[in-house]
Amino acid sequence: MKCIHQDKALIFAFSGELDNLSILKIKADVIREIDRVQAPVVKFDFKDVTFIDSTGIGFY
Amino acid sequence: MNRMTLSFDAKLENEAFARTSAVAFLMPLNPTVDEIMEIKTILAEAVVNCMIHGYQGCEEGQVRISVAYDETHRVTIEVQDTGIGIEDITLARQPLYTTRADLERSGMGMTIMESFSDEFEIQSHPNQGTTVRLVKQLQFHE
Questions:
Q1: Homologous superfamily, domain B2-137
Q2: What stretch of H or E contains B45?
């Protein structure tokens, strides 16, 4: 996962497979960064994601 | 008819193993990319349900998957646990229903499995485990 600050947006770029285990690993970091930056716009970039299931839906 | 059966610990890192094993087994059927993605998703949903709901996160539980296909490329998948079981199957199958809102579960697992399969049934009793059985017809050209 990459985290990018662009203009007033906080962008999280995800890649690979987003299953239960991988989401558990990144979840805290994503929430922490959102709380820290308090950006008016948060974007999730999934273009490099190859797999996602309902766990991912629940997280996002 | 060809069949494979796998049993593994209810550890989250084994979910990917389950997905890829099922797809690897079905590769002789030349599934389409969409079929592969649907099979992977079905396995992911079913296996995670065993781990999160059936065994409540206890990694000592065993998840058993069975994948079979016949000469018409009709695929049967069974995923089984011996966990706490489901009290109300009808309720559990409702979209967005979850008993683990504390884990921010979407409640869409059953709906997704049912959407990606041609036949879908659940057998479960409280404290007697759960078996999910799905049938999916892959493309077949004689």
A1: Histidine kinase-like ATPase, C-terminal domain (3.30.565.10)
A2: helix B33-48
